[in-house]
Write a structure and sequence with these properties.
Elements: E1 30-31, E2 36-37, H1 38-54, H2 58-61
Antiparallel strand pairs: 1-2
């Protein structure tokens, strides 16, 4: 493993004072094409979803309707 090997968030839970290195290809959560842990992508996607939900939408900025439309009799 090189000096650029990332820290594994799962293995590091055992002892928070010791950073465990990523197992790279020996780990089921490692993405070899991206050279990153899949937990990074899960966290990034969750962060993007939260940011998207916090932004106001054009529908919520429009004036609310006073109720359902009345049928013509």
């Amino acid at each position: 493993m090189s000096a650029t090997t990332p820290i594994c968030p799962i293995l590091s839970i055992r002892n928070p004072s010791v950073d465990e290195l990523c197992l790279t290809n020996d780990c089921a959560l490692y993405l070899p094409a991206a050279k990153k842990c899949s937990l990074v992508y899960i966290g990034f996607k969750a962060m993007m979803d939260v940011q998207r939900m916090q932004q106001p939408t054009s529908a919520s900025q429009a004036a609310p309707q006073s109720g359902p439309p009345r049928p013509n009799v």
